[in-house]
Amino acid sequence: MTEASVQINIPGRPSTYEIAIGHGLLTESSGALAAKILARSGARVHIVSNPTVDRIYGEQLTDSLANAGFTVSKFLMPDGERHKSLKTAQLALRSFAEAGLTRTDAVIALGGGVVGDLAGFASAIYLRGITFIQIPTTLLAMIDSSVGGKTGVNSEFGKNLIGAFHQPLGVIIDPSTLATLEPREITAGLCEMIKHGAIGGKALLGQTSKFLSGFPLANFRESIKLSNFRSDISNLIAANVQFKAKIVAGDERESSNRRDGKSRKILNFGHTLAHALEKVTDYKYFKHGEAVGYGILFTAELSKVLALCDEKDVKLLNDVVHMAGILPPMQNIDSEAVIEAFRFDKKHLAGSLQMILLKGIGKPVILTDRDIPRSATQKVLKQLLHKWA
After folding, report:
1. Cα atoms in the Cβ-side hemisphere of radius 13 Å centred on 270
2. Which of 18, 130, 146, 156 fits a 20 to 30 Å CA distance from 6?
3. CA dist 28 to 110, 267, 283, Å?
4. For 118-129, how does the pLDDT look when each residue is reduced to its tens digit (9 = 90+)?
5. pLDDT value at position 14?
6. Are 283 and 353 in contact (CB under 8 A)?
7. How much is the pLDDT for 1?
8. Is the domain of 290 the same as that of 365?
9. Contact, 79 vs 283, CB < 8 A?
10. Element housing 199 (H / E)
11. For residue 386, is pLDDT > 90?
12. What is the mean pLDDT of residues 204-215?
């Protein structure tokens, strides 16, 4: 049953697409929803997933799609951020061709952000663009990477520097899949929620904080059986999707000449450090959202040091991040290597790195590294690394 839905309306586009949210959608309604989204049945659909997710949900999705009249084929990519690469994308493209996909067929991404990003990117460049549907199975993918049309792969010179804007035709979110996630994956998604609250305002941040107060992470798997939990998590996911959808609708392709508080760039809050941490650890140590959690703490503290944000708001963000779970320790991470990795961030424009800081909760500001003393960045980063070693 669909408990909530969000319409994505991109100005200048001929149509909108829907993000359907509801417990049981994947197992009970995915085939019918895919037929509705594609406005046809009988076409070929090609599932992109990984072995872990496929083992849990692959057969159910395949059966539902087949019952709706689709011919189903599948590609399984290796599990993990380090496999979000051009090499894996090439393997996915080969599977598209071997399955005989045409421009009237579709790709379905079943999995977390890595699967969604890679499947979307491959869909964007195969036959110069074919339709795809997102079925995210992690909290982070539900509220962030499945929404907005950014797709891409990592490379030796940085994260997501190779990619394309390619909007899905629809998104199917089933919060029931969260019951199968390990706590670290839940923490990763919650950190992205906190990021949205930090830049979106105290109402959204407060909704996340209230949820965590009522349903502590330690009891997450047991709580998901409760009707009030199921209602609250669906509403929280919908609120985050609505926030991101509004930003994307106003600046779909992240215009390079915008530096206002409604630029899509503000969604990169916390990501400068996050991407650097992922790069220096070869994408093997942190979950993306965990790295974003550290990015939130770093950027909030830097905003305070630069006298942009008061201590009360910084403490609030710290408190909510701590409610989201334990982040991996950062021993043996070199601050200079992290700062060097900033150079490979995709937010570099005209030779300068743009960083999103805060003037307060819900008040993001875009500055360049020319506006931020290197000494302040080094000081705050070293303090963070020492504190969380």
Report:
1. 25
2. 130
3. 15, 33, 35
4. 999 999 999 999
5. 55
6. no
7. 63
8. yes
9. no
10. helix 183-200
11. yes
12. 97
- Span 89-94, mean pLDDT? 98
Kindly tell me the burial class for residue 15, based on how many C-beta atoms sit within 10 Å of its own C-beta (0-12, 13-18, 19 or more).
Answer: exposed
| CA dist., res. 31 & res. 65, Å (int) | 4
Report the domain count for the chain.
Answer: 2
CB 107 within 8 A of CB 46: yes
> Which one of 127, 156, 180 terminates a domain?
180
At 99, list the tokens: 């399955």
Closest by CA position to 192, among listed 250, 237, 228, 255: 237
The mean pLDDT of 125-147, rounded to a whole number, is 96
3-state secondary structure of 42: coil
pLDDT value for 132: 96
Q: Which of 146, 180, 214 is the last residue of a domain?
A: 180
pTM comes to: 0.93
Contact 74, 63 (CB under 8 A): no
- Kindly report the number of other CB atoms within 10 A of residue 168's CB atom: 28
Segments forming the whole domain that contains residue 369: 184-387
